[in-house]
Amino acid sequence: MAPNCSKLLTKNNVLLTASAVTLLWILKNRRKKIFQSKRSVEEEVKYLISDKKENITKAHVDRIFFKQIYELLRIVIPSWASPEAGFLFMIACSLVARSICDLWIISYGTKIESAIVSSNRNLFVQRLITFLCAIPVISLVNNVLKFSIGELKLRLRNNMTRRLLDDYLKNYTYYRMSNLDNRISNADQLLTTDVDKFCESIAELYCNTAKPLLDIGIYVYRLWTSLGGQTPMSMLGYLLVSGVLLTHLRRPTGKMTAQEQKLEGEYRHINARLITYSEEVAFYNGNSREKVTLIVSFNKLLNHLRNFLRFRVFMGVIDNIVAKYFASIVGFWVVSRPFLSQTHELVDLGHQERSRLYYTYGRMLVKLAEAIGRLVLAGRELTRLAGFTSRVTQLRTVLADLNVGRYTRTMVAGSEHLIPNNGKLIFRDNIIKFDKVPLITPNGDILITELSFEVKSGMNVLVCGPNGSGKSSLFRILGELWPLFGGELMKPPRGKLFYIPQKPYMTLGSLRDQITYPHSSAEAKRRGASDKMLEEHLRLVQLGYLLKREGGLDAVADWLDVLSGGEKQRIAMARLFYHAPQFAILDECTSAVSVDVEGSMYKYCREVGITLFTVSHRKSLWQHHEHVLYLDGRGNYSFKPIDAYTEEFGS
Ligand SMILES: Nc1ncnc2c1ncn2[C@@H]1O[C@H](COP(=O)(O)OP(=O)(O)OP(=O)(O)O)[C@@H](O)[C@H]1O
């Protein structure tokens, strides 16, 4: 029987092992397949944002961080006499008041308990009533503290946002940031969430350090005067050692926080793109493709958040051990020493008095240990703040660079010698003159080595050439969006040059705002534009019916959605009539407008003295121009009068 049984067992074992191996193999293959399919989907989508080489953000609590935070603090707290400094003071006062309340609660709690222990009913009731009367004051102190913190956060955010927006919207910095520079890919995330979190982090850190520091000061003083210096000094020694250790272990937090914000920004950006281009995507039926792009971006974010969570949990365990529980053990140890010592003056006291003192000192020591723990944990906030600080500082650096014309881009090989803003810009009315100006893209690609031509007011010019030959690039240089790499450019100041793109921008606001953009209605009125005049402009571009349909110039709508492509182009023309600049650049801006409307618009421009640069392939437009600038797309160009034999157009 026994050998049979063992045989059976061995057989069973073999079977069990075989099935376990098979199960493992199936599971492994399944995981491999899932992993492979997930990878192949992710490999298919290489969206650009993440592939752009960005500076690797270093975010440690070190000398650089303290320098950066000092600079940012000077912005959010402009002076010691500012309201922000006032709120810092108010928080400090509220914290002092709260600590006094805490101390009072400790000592008064002991008094109530001693009244209970000594069975003194009258004293107990009397003390309880006093305690009850103090409750509203304590509650008020707590909420004044909450209010001061909330208001401080708002004020810090207000100051930082205003400063950043000042720089972001100075000249064309917002354009340059996304078109000329590749250091920051999602300025919106930085300007919104990151700034908010940065300010929140400062306010939190201030409270999380100010209150424990104050508590430590109070309790160290009280314990020192009653138990001697050794007890509080041992606790402070522990604070120092644990603080240094935890700060070192938490070093990756800053970088991980910065990375989290970057990935959140990317994911948000991809979502916003889908909203902007929803119609185009819907016509292409691109749901699945867009979903994959979104999921890939979300997975990246999710993986990072998961890793960050694991790291935080790991650090939480260490934090709890070091800053919370071990601090309590150290607390017990140090408070017990004078009571256990045979030489301390406490030895002479009776049992009841010793119990009372131990109770009071013990509570103080627990509070001291808690305060030390909170201070050590505030280090965690400090490393998070380091992450936000480096992100906000990076945004400020890029803004400052762009405002002085310095930008970082992917230069093509051999173009390192190109220096942006090396050309000369001269402002003069009624003339546009390119003198040996090279046409160079922000990447450093040379489209035309040297471009020279002169246009005076009254000489309409048709610009043509194949796709990618540099027509729009020419206007970007003329509009000062792109830097001048060399030569001399003479032109009227910005306000006297107007640009109308193929897809004109419609602002938020009334129908009147669309015509006067970027002037507000009030500004337009100040400049003498009456409603009658604006309505006349609308009629000139055959949009008079909009006044009736939409309910007059004051009608408010989302004009980007409400108007058709051709209507938007005609609004842009009415806008041109309102501004009546010296020169206007029309970049295929009448492609959706019928020929007769187009003709009357050109006639009107000539009447009021607006000189036009037109990019168009329409033959119907030849008659409205005197010169033609032809870019051949291979680095050559010609500039000559239009006559009956001109053939170049219609590339
Ligand atoms: N922001 C940019 N950064 C780098 N290169 C750019 C940028 N914008 C345009 N380019 C490149 O510059 C070249 C000229 O572009 P541009 O838009 O001036 O052509 P275009 O003549 O207006 O073409 P189209 O007729 O198609 O509108 C193209 O090769 C384009 O890829």
From TrEMBL:
Domain named ABC transporter: residues: 432-651
Matches recorded under Gene3D superfamilies = ABC transporter type 1, transmembrane domain, P-loop containing nucleotide triphosphate hydrolases
- Read off the PANTHER family from this record: ATP-BINDING CASSETTE SUB-FAMILY D MEMBER 3 (PTHR11384:SF62), ATP-BINDING CASSETTE, SUB-FAMILY D MEMBER (PTHR11384)
The record's subcellular locations are: Peroxisome membrane
In terms of one coarse class, where is the protein primarily found?
membrane
Chain segments annotated as transmembrane = 12-29, 87-108, 128-145, 313-335
Q: What is this protein called?
A: ABC transporter ATP-binding protein
List the membrane topology term(s): Multi-pass membrane protein
> What is this organism's lineage?
Eukaryota, Metazoa, Ecdysozoa, Arthropoda, Hexapoda
Which GO BP terms, alphabetically? fatty acid beta-oxidation; long-chain fatty acid import into peroxisome; peroxisome organization; very long-chain fatty acid catabolic process
Residue ranges annotated for the ABC transmembrane type-1 domain, each copy included: 155-323
Q: Which family does it belong to?
A: Belongs to the ABC transporter superfamily. ABCD family. Peroxisomal fatty acyl CoA transporter (TC 3.A.1.203) subfamily.
GO CC annotations on file? peroxisomal membrane
Domain of life, per UniProt, equals Eukaryota
CDD domains listed in its UniProt record: ABCD_peroxisomal_ALDP
- What are this entry's molecular-function GO terms? ABC-type transporter activity; ATP binding; ATP hydrolysis activity; long-chain fatty acid transmembrane transporter activity
Q: Which UniProt keywords apply?
A: ATP-binding, Membrane, Nucleotide-binding, Transmembrane, Transmembrane helix, Transport
Q: Which SMART domains does this chain map to? A: AAA
